[in-house]
Design brief:
The chain has 608 residues and is an alpha/beta fold. It is built from 20 helices and 24 strands. It has an eight-stranded antiparallel β-sheet, with helices on one face. It binds 2-deoxy-2-amino glucitol-6-phosphate.
Amino acid sequence: MCGIIGYVGPREAVGVLLEGLRRLEYRGYDSAGVALYDGSGIRTLKTEGNLDHLEKALARFSARGNIGIGHTRWATHGRPSERNAHPHLDCKEEIAVVHNGIIENFRELKGGLLARGHIFRSETDSEVLAHLIEENLHGDLFAAVQASLRQVKGAFALVCFSAQEPGIMVGARMESPLVLGVGEGEMFLGSAVPAFLKSTSRAVFLENGDVVRVAQEGYLIKTLEGEDVQREEVELPLDIDAAEKGGYPDFMLKEILEQPVAWGDTLRGARDAAGALVLPDFNIPEEELRGVRRVSFVACGTAYHAGLIGRYILESWMRLPAEIDIASEFRYREPKLGPETLVVAISQSGETADTLAAVRGARAAGARVVCIVNTVGSLMTRESDGVIYTHAGPEIGVAATKTFLAQIAGVYLLGLYLGQVCGGLDGAFVRKTLNTLEAIPALLEEVLHDTACIEECAKRYYQSEDFLFLGRNINYPVAMEGALKLKEISYVHAEGYPAGEMKHGPIALLHPGFPVLVLAPRDRVYDKMLSNLQEIKARGAPALAVATRGDEEIAEVADQVLYVPETEAAFYPVVISPVLQLFAYYIAKLRGCNVDQPRNLAKTVTVE
Ligand code: AGP
């Protein structure tokens, strides 16, 4: 997620903008920039890298003015670079825009703008906003923004100003947050309250579809269609630390609860105007893909668990042979690879050393490589043939949560795309499944809305020193991920196991102080999972179950049941994973652990 700050008031804007961007650094970014009106025109300054680079450049930046906008960019379209950094300008350099979000139809919009002679300077989706506003600007920036945004599909929070109307900022939001800071004779717009909390604690939270016209003495809010809107001014708590976490106690909890948005953003733009699946960065020619006879996933940690799910999906949907290996093992095997093998590397950072080494080895062996990555422009995206980007935004918590779910979305998109290109899936199935995927956020909201039962279970078992997580078929990787989450944030010994393996050893471990969590949704292996539960109970161990809402049979056997909404078997990993994330989160909190920075762990393992 990008950071946005806008200012208009009596003070020198550059200092206010830099302070605001500093307060938004926690969100993660790869470049930054500012633009201001100096009385004669718009002056911009943009740098790649962190804010220290921008601050150093600003020391030599002579422009001064009392209206300006600033931005820290988390790249979604277009590599991290100075030219892709925001603010973006129109052709005449009379309008400056900063944007947070994903413009789904930017290719169509850009094509039209180019055809009408507009000159683009960047490869971003955001720049189309500057040129659309330019086309619609006829003396009223507010009206120009409304007219432009009525053409835009997707998520946006934007702030802009124009040299034609000095002293006026215009902001708008759709899905991506934007907040108005109401100061004494000065006004702010920010993507989050820390951007201006040092200057004012009075704020107006804009809603989807709001467009706000801001001058230093006041503001006006209307809808995209021009109806007046009244929004309440609220007094904010002055706790910056809490504000950075969006009011949540930890980034991890905030990111768990962001999963519906992360899922939706990952799917955003995956369909063209006709509703067909498109993966714009896949970059491997279709005729080459039709020669693929095998897929080989490589990844580490949580990403490996997403790859395990991908293997089930490809074999089930595509009947395509699929294998998977831990990246650090893959590189020491001597797998038989060639053009008939598609290697799929999964990595939220795109910088994990072992996975990078596996990618290099695979390409050296003649395989084509596509990576499923969350970080635009990361090394892995440059060393692979193609990319499926997840758009979970920056994940501050070390333990992967929303990026894991986004990776699962990525492997579903991979399965559908291969099926569509190689002919394994008919169009009706692809469209139906895309519709199902697009409806997932609502299911996730259901899961995340009712967490009391999960917290209650955590309270009952947080003092246990051992856990066994059991899953079968596509939920076996989910059990593995649930155990990893618990291990890495609460330091409790937990193992994820294929349920069928319990009798081949782990059952010897069971005792009354050794809880077992069984993933038993209503699918074709349900009865076998019920048997596992009975075997666990027979050994006197506590048995927790994750089950499909409405399943009363399982409540007769398990000691506690955590329910998830009913869905198709292929999608239970999506609705079960947040339950296990929260279970681990609550246990870790009860054990007094630092869930955002667990001991011994790094967010990205760039060493082997
Ligand atoms: C998971 O919670 C961990 N943060 C870790 O296992 C992580 O998934 C692994 O290091 C892979 O990281 P990557 O996705 O950035 O490649």
